[in-house]
């Protein structure tokens, strides 16, 4: 189905999801409306203008001590020293022109096969993965927190079981089938040693939520076709 944002067609195949494609176009149009961007600007100028929109119109307060302590208590596994995971993956890459639904269908089918026959993982990685690790059967070695993109890290470290994970991991690179082979839990760090890191993690999550809410508000004032963005008509959204 064609995606239209205020009458402008969006090229969904350039994005991991139709929602991201539509949100990007909404923010681009908002930058044009603010006079910060020409309607036919080059892609690099579009990204700069969108960053300006988010920087000037999405405000995230710094978390206080109490909020940081609560966040730390709720996410203890994140704040360990020496925590390592041995993992493998198969990347089905999303490139311009790729049909995202078709690629997801292929990835889901392969995931189902490997959940039933995990011994085929290395063979499928060598023949199907778009990552250089495919030549090694998908081996990524031992990974620590901060070594991968956030979505991948969350799948590896947030209480994931051993073996082939039951769900695809989607990142900006594409769809990943992931196998966790070993966990080394590490040692829990006290709050006082990680206060700044906790504050940064909490600030980042608050910023993500604030951007989501901001997009919902401007989506509530837009005409969308072919995509749902959970639009809100009021800025007082939760």
Structure keywords:
single chain, 238 residues, alpha+beta, Triger factor/SurA peptide-binding fold, Chitinase A, domain 3, 2 domains, five-stranded antiparallel sheet, three-stranded antiparallel sheet, 7 helices, 10 strands, 18% strand, disordered C terminus
Briefly say what this structure is.
This protein has 238 residues and is of the alpha+beta class. It has helices at 18-33, 43-57, 65-74, 100-116, 121-128, 150-157, 191-219, and strands at residues 3-5, 8-10, 80-81, 84-93, 139-143, 163-164, 169-171, 174-184, 187-188, 224-225.
Structure description:
By secondary structure, this protein is an alpha+beta fold. It has two domains: 1-79 and 190-238, Triger factor/SurA peptide-binding fold (Orthogonal Bundle); 82-188, Chitinase A, domain 3. The chain is built from seven helices and ten strands. It has helices spanning 18-33, 43-57, 65-74, 100-116, 121-128, 150-157, 191-219; strands at residues 3-5, 8-10, 80-81, 84-93, 139-143, 163-164, 169-171, 174-184, 187-188, 224-225. The strands form three sheets. Strands 4, 5, 6, 7 and 8 form a five-stranded antiparallel beta sheet that branches. Strands 2-1-10 form a three-stranded antiparallel beta sheet, covered by helices on one side. The protein has a two-stranded antiparallel ribbon with strand order 3-9. The longest helix has 29 residues, at 191-219. Residues 232-238 have low confidence and may be disordered.
């Amino acid at each position: 189905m064609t995606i239209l944002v205020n009458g402008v067609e969006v090229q969904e195949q350039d994005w991991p999801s139709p929602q991201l494609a539509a949100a990007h176009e909404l923010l681009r149009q908002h930058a044009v409306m603010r006079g910060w961007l020409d309607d036919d600007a080059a892609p690099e100028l579009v990204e700069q203008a969108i960053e300006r929109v988010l920087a000037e119109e999405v405000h995230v307060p710094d978390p206080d001590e109490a909020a940081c302590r609560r966040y730390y208590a709720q996410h203890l596994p994140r704040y360990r020293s020496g925590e390592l995971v041995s993992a493998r993956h198969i990347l089905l890459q999303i490139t311009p022109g790729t049909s995202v639904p078709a690629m997801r269908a292929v990835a889901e089918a392969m995931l189902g096969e490997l959940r039933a026959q995990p011994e085929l993982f290395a063979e499928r990685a060598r023949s199907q993965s778009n990552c250089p690790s495919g030549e090694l059967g998908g081996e990524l070695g031992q990974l620590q927190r901060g070594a991968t993109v956030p979505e991948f890290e969350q799948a590896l470290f947030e209480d994931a079981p051993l073996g082939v994970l039951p769900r695809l991991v989607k990142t900006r690179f594409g769809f990943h089938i992931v196998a966790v082979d070993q966990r080394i839990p590490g040692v829990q760090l006290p709050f006082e040693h990680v206060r700044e890191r906790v504050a940064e993690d909490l600030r980042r999550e608050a910023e993500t939520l604030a951007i989501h809410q901001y997009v919902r508000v401007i989506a509530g004032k837009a005409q969308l076709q072919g995509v749902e963005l959970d639009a809100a008509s009021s800025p007082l959204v939760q």
